[in-house]
Amino acid sequence: MATQKFSNDKSNQQSNMKYETLEKGPKRKYTRKSKIDEKAKEMIDQMIDEQIIVQTNEQ
């Protein structure tokens, strides 16, 4: 009788458990700069400068 009561208490404890999922934080961003990105930025800046020069010449 005591073992049956113990098993009932144990099953009640297991059914009353709550599970919480932990949220993962934001992943670390990739901060390493590559030479390709630098070259692309230089080309874009150069193209923008050329467009500005053309626009000023037209005015």
UniProtKB/TrEMBL annotation:
Residue ranges of the region described as Disordered: 1-34
Record's compositionally biased regions (Polar residues): 1-18
Superkingdom assignment: Eukaryota
Protein name: Uncharacterized protein
Organism: Streblomastix strix
The organism's taxonomic lineage, starting at the top: Eukaryota, Metamonada, Preaxostyla, Oxymonadida, Streblomastigidae
